[in-house]
Amino acid sequence: MDARATIHEYYDSLRHGAPLDTFFADDRPEDDAIVKVGLSERRVGSGRVQEGLRDQTASTSDWTVDSRELRVTQRASVAWFSDTVALAWDERGEYHEFDTRWSGTLEHRDGDWAFVGMHVSAPVEL
């Protein structure tokens, strides 16, 4: 599977409420840290990222993930991407909907592509 397919699989897993934590790499001693920035939080370190994703999967449902402008550049062991994504979901009975911007980095480790950084934000009108 290439990096683009990994990103699509992540989106599909989000839509279907499947686990997301396995898409993120584990920290290595030489790493600074794995980082995921979401709409309402910033998690540093693979343990905290993976914990946050497990909590998100447990507390949310009915996801809409509409990728609109996915761009992926892949090299031998690293890939980066950007996208605009329409997101909607239910969180404990409360409906959320945002037009979001995504960017991130994946690294090819042990035969698979894994996220080492992800940033999701929503534009704010000024």
Distance between the termini: 41 Å
What's the pLDDT, averaged over the residues?
A: 94
- What's the shape? globular
Question: What is the second-level CATH architecture?
Answer: Roll
Number of helices: 2
Order of H and E elements: HEEHEEEEE
* CATH top level label: Alpha Beta
Helix content: 10-25%
Question: Can you characterise this structure?
Answer:
- The chain is of the alpha+beta class and 126 residues long.
- It has a single domain, classed as Nuclear Transport Factor 2, Chain: A (Roll).
- The protein is 22% helix and 46% strand.
- The chain contains two helices and seven strands, in the order αββαβββββ.
- The protein is globular, with a radius of gyration of 14 Å.
- 20% of the residues are buried.
- The model has no long low-confidence stretch (mean pLDDT 94).
